[in-house]
Prior knowledge:
Layout: H1 16-37, H2 44-67, H3 73-90, H4 99-111, H5 114-135, H6 140-223, H7 229-256, H8 263-273, E1 277-281, H9 289-309, E2 315-321, E3 325-333, H10 350-361, E4 365-371, E5 374-382
Amino acid sequence: MTILxxxxxQVPERWGALANGLTLAGLGLLVFGVVTGVPAADSSGxxxxxxxxxxxxxxxxxxxxxxxxxxxxxxxxxxLVVVAAAGGALAAFSPVALVFPGVATLxxxxxxxxxxxxxxxxxxxxxxxVATVSNGNKFxxxxxxxxxxxxxxxxxxxxxxxxxxxxQLTKLELESDRxxxxxxxAELLDERNHLARELHDVLAHTLAALSLQLEAFATVxxxxxxxxPAVREQLERTRQLVREGLDEARGAVRALRDDAExxxxxxxxxxxxxxxxxxxxxxxxxxxxxxxxxxxxVTQEALTNVMKHATxxxxxxxxxxxxxxxxxxxxxxxxxxxxxxxxxxxxSGFGLQGIxxxxxxxxxEVEAGPVTGGWRVTATVPSPGSAPVASGREHDPLAx
Length: 400
């Protein structure tokens, strides 16, 4: 019979109100059964005692229902002891009241260990014994109380073990998932380190060798009196491009190894190469290599477009560190009338489109468009801790 009154301590929250309602409805049925079970021939004193015990057990039941989810343990324990004791004593007048100590013991065993649960059940059984002796009833009611308490104890402990087993399984699943994530991260780091080694051994060494060859060729050209200035200019430009490519390769290797150079230093050097002014504001904070590389590529793409389509226009790069976002703004003036074609009609736009896709993976965005007196490109990424950062596995196409 005790299974008709479940303890909803572990019931999902959306069912909590329904479980409380069913528990109180069960109390109502139990009270009705107790009232109809009191023998009509009993004396008025016995009936008064039965009524008082029923009121005490019912009020303690309601207090337990209201207290079990938010009140201190001592309040819950007191309510259950009163339910068990008052209900156990009431069983001497109406055996149906044995449900009270049974349910109290079940609730205690579901919530605590065996010792406190047995103490609650023992209070109910002892109260039944005292009331039975005082009332002169047969000891069959006491045996029934012991059976009800024992049943409640066994069902409650079984339920508690099932809950603990489910919690343990959930913990094991979480630990397994965490271990799988760590293995994936280790595999990713191994892959990135492998790519970094290949990039360093192939591209960086090739560019370094090419730079040495150009230096040797420049020495030969300097010693040749017939070398034209145009050849010397193109040679110097080629040497500069190779040096920049070598720096780019080294930066990519550092990014793959999670050892990227600080963003402000990389942007300052890039702005200097393109004869642009550079400013930074806000408290400098370390960024993930993926975020550094993405913002660097945006700036590189924007400055390259200025060189192509607004040659000679005044250009500025602004880096702002904020609590929620890191922002890079590249502004350039309108080119001279005899300069290159207007920026708004240049290119296919695929360079910035690829940059936008890279930033989207990081939770950021990029905007480009005309402003008063020129053109502006703005890129933002979340600050560290404000949003998750992507793993950096995406392809890193060179800016056009």
